[in-house]
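Why this split exists: single-chain examples teach little about how molecules sit against one another. For that reason, every record in the complexes split bundles all components of an assembly together and asks for one structure covering all of them. Below is a record exactly as it appears in the raw files.
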Amino acid sequence: MTNETGAHFLLENLLKSGVDTCFANPGTSEMHLTAAMEDYPDVTKVLCLFEGGATGAADGYARMTRKPAATLLHLGPGLANGLANLHNAKKAGSSMINIVGDHTTFHKKYDAPLNSDVEGTARPYSDWVKTTQGPGTLGTDAAEAIAAAKSHGGQIATLIIPADVAWSERDAELVYVTPTQQAPESAAIEQALQWLQNGKPTGIILGQDALFGEGLKLAGQIAAGSGATLLSPYASARTERGYDLPETTRIPFPVDAAVATLSRFEQLILIGADEPVAFFAYPGKPSRVAPETAKLMSVATPRDDIGRALKQLATLIGPAKSPTPESLNVPVSAGALTPDLLTDVVAASVTEGLIIVDEGVTSTRSFFGKSAGCPRHDYLVNVGGSIGAGLPLALGAGIACPDRPVLCLSGDGSAAFTLQALWSMARHNLNVTTIICANNSYEILKGEMFRVGAMTPDGPKNPLLELDGPCMNWVSLAEGFGVSAQRCETAEDLTAVLQTSLASPGPYLIEAAL
Amino acid sequence: MTNETGAHFLLENLLKSGVDTCFANPGTSEMHLTAAMEDYPDVTKVLCLFEGGATGAADGYARMTRKPAATLLHLGPGLANGLANLHNAKKAGSSMINIVGDHTTFHKKYDAPLNSDVEGTARPYSDWVKTTQGPGTLGTDAAEAIAAAKSHGGQIATLIIPADVAWSERDAELVYVTPTQQAPESAAIEQALQWLQNGKPTGIILGQDALFGEGLKLAGQIAAGSGATLLSPYASARTERGYDLPETTRIPFPVDAAVATLSRFEQLILIGADEPVAFFAYPGKPSRVAPETAKLMSVATPRDDIGRALKQLATLIGPAKSPTPESLNVPVSAGALTPDLLTDVVAASVTEGLIIVDEGVTSTRSFFGKSAGCPRHDYLVNVGGSIGAGLPLALGAGIACPDRPVLCLSGDGSAAFTLQALWSMARHNLNVTTIICANNSYEILKGEMFRVGAMTPDGPKNPLLELDGPCMNWVSLAEGFGVSAQRCETAEDLTAVLQTSLASPGPYLIEAAL
């Protein structure tokens, strides 16, 4: 091997653009890329046992760093294993560059066993897809992929590299392509300003960069100066929260509750969010949850320059006095764990700088309401709704922010989709604490079925919704992947174990008996 | 709920066509289908914690029963999680009907979080894809899906059902569509006969139904009557083996060995197999492994009526004396396990009727050569090459043949992709014994990298190929999913534990230390 292959050239392209982290599950078609990686010590390489761990981790990484990681995936089927979390990442507006190996250009036509339509596999879950046809176009292809990943606030770019492109001599120049993003239209800013000053009940639905950092502060200023209410979609990529930060009202998951929350507004202004719609449709319930009589306008879509829109609007509104910070004290009762007690314990245990990934589904639904007054923390949820994002997101957040503790709240059913991420947490000794909310049931589905009358709470159980035969032993599963673990049955136990774990290096898993 | 919904109607269609087994991981969009399933006790419902377990199990089920199972998957991302094993099933020519829920017809346009291009997701890994547009077309759509799954010896059919089609009142009649399959052309049969009688060195490469049951016996008769050599592709869906059955020479995985195996043939006749090609292309090596000078002809593609082709050809060849059965005795040495000792132990432990699923990759490569003289058994391997098929195939074989023991040989890296299948084995108390060949390494990739010079055996390790930091504890992982397990370090231990497990009901896992 020399440093003169296409594989080396591609890695240099990525490094020069700041893409220095790769979540990988390689195979034979990627062996020259895998070998070349060892020649670049500046690349952080995270081996994942399952590809959904890689794409989900890259999502978590992008949310915390606001820059893309690369994934390295093996042909169409390896990419396919990563698609569900690509879906989630795409819906979260995360930035990512998937490097997918393919058969050599001259072997493809023989339809060997692992051959499939890689571009077709990528397309439904990527914003940009391209197969490099030869070493000569690798420079422009890589530059386009990187620019695509960085455009519109973050996109999924999938670059397919035939094995012979990776193993051939480098034959291209480094190229740079500028990422693009739509600036806000001044007419929209003016109309929003008018709505904010006309005295009508107004909600501002925030999304993406409006929910953390500078964006959130500007949104708080706009709300304080106009009297508007800040809202956020049920599922947002990253929400910064804490007692001294502007608070948003989260639009609930159940349709009726969402409709009720929005019913008092006559005007809804979207900044970085789409119009709120129901997660699913139900017989006789609306798809759109905003009042039919309310007027809606968008200042910036999730893909636009949200920071600029907020800055312009905040400048027009002028400075405003922020509400006095209110630190809430969450009282924790003792006793056998329930979902409500569990979220009490977690809210009481939040420390400054904690990153929380919440895929606790029904078990942790009460957490968001309790944690507004906690010390400052980041709150990440599954945005695309494909369950199995939680553990991988926590892995990626841990790689992105090795100095911050990460807490992953997961359902037991949820964690079972992508539990292999635990192994990568152990491998990198990340301070990630995972709480498995072990209710041995697809509880969310039961709730949905009760709601539509497809099942009754006092009727017979449907075995397709029960995880209790056998119950999973999460202590055993975690230890199998090299993560120490403990089962907690009471609030007192959970409090003690959780607080120790958050303060200690390395991963830990807690099976919370519900 | 009444029995009068579209969901009920669909299930009745499936049952009337003999599709009575469903591997499922349902979600909200499938809740009416999930509820309706409880109204049909004749449907065997197998809950899978991960969708790749469902599609892989349906593959194993189809290989053993030669009929389709249904899968039930949640929207585009749930289907996506099943794609890698759909790829393997498609390459294996397995029959399957994927029922995938989608958003209601009226909600789709709002692009809710879980919305994606479901048809686009299905297409690269399905032979037939359709979305039912309303309750009125469900009868023809279901019939077409069933016929597609049963056509050409087995296909992947994906039927997408919007939630409102499932919950609406039934509004269609039961319809029947005839599956199709190409009969052999008489010109091809005649040419093959001529080749078999012209005295030149001739190989017959068998695939699909030619490798077990009646097909294999006919193939044996043709070989005995003509002097031709029977061959099989490296990866075949199902091979029946045993001391009193015709034996096939398996074309090796490494390109050089494959070329050497085929070099002596001047004529190659394909019956149920495609032309053999290299799994991957390597610098300076050929893609086609048959001699350039050899003549090739196809009597039946893997999609054609292979049984009929064999019958016609065997009739023309006439009866022939089969070679005398030769029962081989595999001597087993004692001592610390090595891949070679491990396959000795397994070959010595094969019992009549055993179903073996082999995804042991490098660790079990010597098994096939040793097991020709074993009692009759079925041998299933990963045909599409996307690792992670083993455990799900074993699950499906166990559901298909509850009275036969199943032995799953798996690499540790392989098993980590889809280990959730263990839970479903425990749930259904299947007599599946899984041996994890624990070498803590992606050994196959190292071999490939040595071969092309991307790494040297005495050079530094590449962390992306090492699974030893931390080593997985497979006893712990299995117990976490409710499967009893034990680690074996010697051949004596493995022999004792394996033979007990095969003879005992319920699943068991053995971590074989290599």
